[in-house]
Amino acid sequence: MLPVIADDASIALLYCSHMNQLHAMRVFTRVVDLASFNLAARQLGMSAAAVTRSVGTLEAHLNMRLLNRTTRSLSLTDVGREYLDGCRAIIEKLDEIESNLLETTRDPQGALVQTERVNGLELSDCTN
Fold it and tell me: Please, where are the H alpha helices in the chain?
């Protein structure tokens, strides 16, 4: 059997799907931390409807309810509590990786070469 080779469109779709899921995980954790869809929406710069839709889409993707919600209260289901722990671990690790990458790109690397012309001759001094 020949291996299946993904085209650019399917790779882009998979990438967007995972990015949307990661975004939904961040939204979900914010909702839980603040115990409010409205407060989470305000902090994330989103509409309350978009936050509700994001958590609903995440629940549909997982085919399980993560939150019990009424007009007055919000609580995690047992599965939601377990998923929240996983979300936090993933988000923390991703943020750590990105922070480390940004640090390495800010720190100068390599040899510094200073060149001067003295009496028509070029002199180099390498400093590490």
Answer: 8-34, 37-44, 48-62, 78-106
